[in-house]
Amino acid sequence: MTDFTHGALYGGGIITVIMTLVALALWGERKMAARMQSRLGPTLVGPFGLLQPVADVLKLLQKEDIVPDEADRVLFNLAPPLGAIGALAVAAVVPFSASIIGADLDAGVLYLLAIGALGVLPVFIAGWGSNNKFALLGAMRAIAQSVSYEVPLVLAALVPVILTGTMKVSAIVEYQAQHHWLIAWPFFLGVPAFVLFMLAMLAESNRIPFDIPEAESELVAGITTEYTGMKFALFYMAEYLHTLIASAVAAALFLGGWDGPFAPGLHWMAAKTLGLFAFVYWVRWTLLRFRSDQLMALCWRWLVPTGVALVLGAALWVVFVG
Amino acid sequence: MTPLAATVRPRVNPYLSIDALDPEAELMLLHFGPQHPSTHGVFRMDLFLDGERIVKAVPHCGYLHRAVEKLCEKLAYVQLPPIVDKNDYVAPMTNEQALVMAFEAMLKLEVPRRARWMRALFAELQRVASHLLWLGTFSLDLGGALGGGSTVFIYCFRERELVLDLFEAVTGARFHYNTHSIGGNRHDLPAGWGAKVKAALDTIEARLPEYLAMTLHNHLFEQRTRGVGVLDGELALELGVTGPNLRASGVDHDLRRDAPFHAYDEVKVNVATARGGDCYARTEVRVAELVESLRLCRALLDGMPEGPINSGKPTKLPVQTKLPAGQQYVGIETPRGELGTWVIADGSQHPYRLKLRPPSLHALSALPYLLPGQTVSDAIAILGSLDPIMGEVDR
Q1: CB–CB of A37 and B154 under 8 A?
Q2: What is residue B12's predicted lDDT score, i.e. its pLDDT?
Q3: Quick one: which of B181, B179, B186, B175 has its CA closest to B88?
Q4: Nearest Cβ partner of B37 from A209, A217, A293?
Q5: Which of A108, A146, A160, B39 has its CA 20 to 30 A from that of B84?
Q6: How far, rounded to the nearest angstrom, does the alpha carbon of residue B122 sit from its chain's CA centroid?
Q7: Chain A contact for B146, CB < 8 A?
Q8: Can you say whether residue A222 is alpha, beta or left, with left for phi > 0 and alpha for psi between -120 and 50 degrees?
Q9: B68-388, which class in CATH?
Q10: What element of type H or E holds B338?
Q11: How many residue pairs from chains A and B have C-beta atoms closer than 8 A?
Q12: How far is A114 from chain B (nearest CA, A)?
């Protein structure tokens, strides 16, 4: 089997599964949030409201597709698909099991950080192309935020790379399967790095309490203010994709990926990913929102120094202990 | 208190013309509202932004103008309470009370003691409902409709429902009650209502710590509100800001204690104040008032006297009620501050002029002073913390 057919088959399969998962996750989040708020959530469409995401998408498909007169047509239309593609592209190097992996790159960690960093581009394009002041303010915040949080994200991702001595994501998981999960030992490096990674990932994917770029109570809908129908849906989907894949990456880098106490395989990866995903949403529906400048202060005053200390600690650990 | 004129120091007038702004600064003019999700109805602020920082703010109200005062000049006196219900649509009970009390004062009517106690009880229950709604919407402003803010919001709404249920049991309406008439109340308390009130109060009191954990005692909430939108007491007095907003600025002023009406001469009110003058202090004061209102409700229920609920006056045919020529101002403490009714009568069946003094309007007048120097995010927090109800601002 050539690399191309391998990539096409696995890629197609992974994308299909992930898209389905996003729809399910949407339903799951709404149900969970509803329970937390003493509501019922979707109940009418299909059993337990399971078909609600389908109904949502169908509704969005019927919406009028509006491009504002004064908007930059090309940029305005380019941004939504770019956002979704960027989020999906990260999934290529995530090992879902020992054999299910889109492209097992040698520099996998580098690839996912690079592609993840591209996520700011569609946000910028949308904010600028919409020709809307709220969108522009949202984009301004998003860029500041994404560029800042890129630093702790990279530092946190460096810790497993240094500890395992490889940038290949599958090899990192392999190492954890043979030795121990990085979050378990050395836990004083693994746990903070994991937390740092999740925080930075949350900030990168603009989730509450870091969702200030779209902050609907302040900026109406931020960058998505002018978007309707499927374009809006793409943005929305990109956000969920980003969270889901970020959870998968964190599970692979720190929680041992597809490894488990018994019968290692895809189900462990799925359980860890969805568990992290649910945790992200738990946080989301509990906390209030940071202010833009407070977010920056958090990043530069706390997360970046912590990241530097962790990288240093990991290097010392490798040299003197492991 | 020292005379105001002696304490006022010169300030920069925030209403200065936009020509006075630095033309080199390349400010961005952001029309904030009236269709913005967080302007608490239809309110507009023109924000001149330097990046995210506000240089100048110009508030615009009037989008919800319904000509209530003019309407009142054309209607008979007894037809007015349901009209003013719609002004402050979060606390209709106190709207009615301010109105009928002005009429009663002109007619020199003695309101029966039971009716006065009932009014005080309604006012306190209304305060609980209003402050709960405020806590919810303020969290919504800070936390967003798709996040933790909406969780607090829905919790608070759930508890507010309990109070609305109680009102419904008495008046038949959940919102626009029309239960106060000139000279007393229209509906007596149904049998077994007191027990229901106590149950509702217990529920609210038991659940309150949950909300406070998500708001007042939450680190994120503190970060967003401490030191944001500091209104000093002097300026607040100068602008006529009343109610919790004034008390949060350290001015100990509450009409329930300082000029007792209803049953407040018999049931003492502990007035809550805070020093900070910021959004956090305003939250603190409102939460303290909420707790105090729960206590007052119990006290009022326990001491509820028997007797008639209406003086049976002024006439056999209420529509023909006529007020003697003259004028009268009555101000009462509503959840938002001093709501005043100034009625000028010419001896006919309609008021010659009816002027309402809504506390929200005066709170909003502080915005041009509070906003410059803050960010857009803070603007939402400040606006929300002032608890404006556009229905009564625009009338």
Answers
A1: yes
A2: 64
A3: B175
A4: A217
A5: B39
A6: 14
A7: yes
A8: left
A9: mainly alpha
A10: strand B337-345
A11: 106
A12: 29
B334-B152-A54 Cα angle (round to 5) = 130
Contact predicate B300/B128, CB 8 Å: no
The C-alpha R_g of chain A, in whole angstroms, comes to 20
List the domain boundaries for chain B. Answer: 4-60, 68-388
* Whole-number Å distance between alpha carbons of A138 and A146: 12
Give the phi and the psi of residue B54 in degrees, each rounded to 5. Answer: -90, 130
Rounded to the nearest 10 degrees, what angle do helices A3-36 and A229-254 cross at? 100
Mutation site for A-interface testing, chosen from B377, B382, B385 by largest number of A Cβ within 10 Å? B377
CB B180 within 8 A of CB B108: no
Of the CA atoms within 13 Å of residue A106, those in its CB half-sphere come to 0
For chain B, the straight-line distance linking the first and the last C-alpha, in angstroms and rounded, comes to 33
How confident is the model over A224-269, as pLDDT tens digits? Answer: 888 888 888 888 888 888 888 888 888 888 887 777 777 777 888 8
Of B141, B147, B158, the CB nearest to A208: B147
Token readout for B56 is 């100048």
Q: What is the CA radius of gyration of chain B?
A: 21
CB B276 within 8 A of CB B231: no
For residue A209, say if its preceding peptide bond is cis, omega within 30 degrees of 0: yes
B151, B214 in Cβ contact below 8 A? yes
Reported as a single tens digit per residue, the pLDDT across B267-308 is: 888 888 888 888 899 999 999 999 999 999 999 998 888 888
Amino acid B10 reads P
A41: left (phi over 0), alpha (psi -120 to 50) or beta: left
Cα nearest neighbour of B153 on chain A:
A37
Contact A211/B at CB under 8 A: yes
- Is A272 an 8 Å CB contact of chain B? no
- Which B residues 41-60 touch A at CB under 8 Å? 49, 51-52
Three-class SS state of B241: coil
Q: Are A260 and A189 in contact (CB under 8 A)?
A: no
Report the gap between the CA of B123 and the closest CA in chain A (Å): 28
B195 lies within 8 A of chain A by CB:
no
Distance CA B266, CA B260 (A): 9
Helix axes A133-164, A108-118, angle to 10 degrees: 170
Query: Would an 8 Å CB–CB cutoff place B149 in contact with chain A?
Result: yes
What is the C-alpha separation between B376 and B309, in angstroms, rounded? 50
Partners of residue B376 in chain A, C-beta under 8 Å? 137, 218-219
Please, which residues bridge with residue B365 across strands?
none
Q: How far is A215 from chain B (nearest CA, A)?
A: 7
Cα distance between residue B31 and residue B29, in whole Å: 7
For Cα atoms B349, B354, B358, give the angle at the middle one, nearest 5 degrees: 145
Cα separation of B294 and B305, whole Å? 19
Q: Cα–Cα distance between A187 and B152 in angstroms, integer?
A: 35
Q: Residue B346 and residue B313: Cα distance in Å, rounded?
A: 20
Question: Could you state, in order of their start, the residue ranges of all structural domains in chain A?
Answer: 71-320
Q: Which residue of B has its CA nearest to A39?
A: B154
Contact A140 B147 (CB under 8 A): no
As a whole number, the mean pLDDT across chain B is: 85
Separation between Cα atoms, residue B269 and residue B279, nearest integer Å: 24
CA nearest B143 in A: which residue?
A: A288
Q: Which residues pair with A294 in a beta bridge?
A: none
ipTM for the complex? 0.78
Q: Answer whether A218 sits within 8 Å of B376, measured CB to CB.
A: yes
